[in-house]
């Protein structure tokens, strides 16, 4: 029986080493993928922000699985101090991932909103430039005093891309102006039609994608919080948060009674330790002498 237990412990240690090696490989793979996607860094660029968020989320399950494998390896081989230290170190680093994924939520909201605003701003700028050019052409044609003057002024503006150019058609100046102004209006309508603001469907797609990213980021933050652990703590970060929120109930907010059941919150005051705190939450056993008046036998 003792030999069997030794072999099982040996097999567990080998499996733990394998899982730990796989976990490190997954972490390295994720870092390489992330760096390849976000370099060069452009923090103020909306496109870079969206690309960074996508890179973080697309492969986020890789470090999450790696963290779980490392926890499992440490559980299988509790007598391996190097493995325990590695698990504790990465569990503390997982707190950075928790904060990072929580920060992605407002970052994605800002990037999505900024992309819509930028598109609208770009449309407004293009319309302003186009309208300015068409107004200048219209004024040039209207105020021309002769055919030679009209030709010279149009050549000075140099707008061949708009299709507005002077052609000698043997017509008098008023008729030439009328035809050119009619052509100008046609080109103006075509240009304005091509410059379109973001459609409601495009905005809806941005909103839908932003919600997907924000909800996924929050879920990943919760998952990493379950694998993260503060230094000196015996429970995961998520359990700590849940306990703190539970203890800060309606009765805990009453200044007259302090924390839950009138006791100070553990870790937040100089009162009793956590063990003493939770022991005081458990009701004491009934004293036999309370009913008979006779002390219990020794």
From TrEMBL:
<protein>
    <submittedName>
        <fullName>Uncharacterized protein</fullName>
    </submittedName>
</protein>
<keyword id="KW-1133">Transmembrane helix</keyword>
<keyword id="KW-0472">Membrane</keyword>
<feature type="region of interest" description="Disordered">
    <location>
        <begin position="249"/>
        <end position="298"/>
    </location>
</feature>
<feature type="transmembrane region" description="Helical">
    <location>
        <begin position="20"/>
        <end position="40"/>
    </location>
</feature>
<feature type="transmembrane region" description="Helical">
    <location>
        <begin position="93"/>
        <end position="113"/>
    </location>
</feature>
<feature type="transmembrane region" description="Helical">
    <location>
        <begin position="52"/>
        <end position="72"/>
    </location>
</feature>
<feature type="compositionally biased region" description="Low complexity">
    <location>
        <begin position="262"/>
        <end position="272"/>
    </location>
</feature>
<keyword id="KW-0812">Transmembrane</keyword>
